[in-house]
Design a protein that fits this description.
Protein name: Protein FAM72A
Helix content: 10-25%
Number of helices: 2
Pfam family, one: YPEH2ZP
Largest sheet: 9 strands, antiparallel
Strand content: 35-45%
Family: Belongs to the FAM72 family.
Number of strands: 9
InterPro entries: YPEH2ZP
CATH topology: Metal Binding Protein, Guanine Nucleotide Exchange Factor, Chain A
Number of domains: 1
Oligomer: single chain
Length: 149
């Protein structure tokens, strides 16, 4: 992955929630743009959103690039909320990317900026642990309360 020439450390970490049912989908979200079309806003995460989404339908390829994709749907309401890049194409891998392969449509999710341990400042990707317990029930309960507000 080509992340050396571009930095994402100063981006805010977001909680991503389904717009249809307010289910927490990820506590490690980042605002992003589609590499193949920078006019399209998305959200992404680096860790598979377990217990929140599942694959739906068949794999497909985009018209703009050669990435192999598969849609993901919210487990609570069943609506398609994004897709997983199953196999990224060479063009996208060589582009400035954040290494995230779980993408969420901005029309299907909303974000809430996470706060750091002080509870005052926004949590930034540069301060986020590489591996975080995404399935910790306590964290998800707090996040769910945030989504409802």
């Amino acid at each position: 992955m080509s992340t050396s020439s571009c930095s994402f450390e100063d981006r805010c970490v977001s909680i991503l929630c389904c717009k249809f049912c307010k289910q927490v989908l990820s506590s490690r979200g980042m605002k992003a743009v589609l590499l193949a079309d920078t006019e399209i806003d998305l959200f992404s995460t680096d860790i598979p959103p377990t217990n929140a989404v599942d694959f739906i339908g068949r794999c497909y390829f985009t018209e703009i690039c050669k990435c192999k994709l598969k849609d993901i749907a919210c487990l609570k309401c069943g609506n398609i909320v994004g897709y997983h890049v199953i196999v990224p194409c060479c063009s996208c891998l060589l582009s400035c990317n954040n290494g995230h392969f779980w993408m969420f449509h901005s029309q299907a999710v909303y974000d809430i900026n996470r706060l750091d341990a002080t509870g005052v400042n926004f949590l930034l990707w540069g301060n986020l642990p590489e591996i975080e317990e995404n399935t910790d029930e306590d964290t998800l309960d707090i996040s769910a309360e945030e989504c409802i507000r």
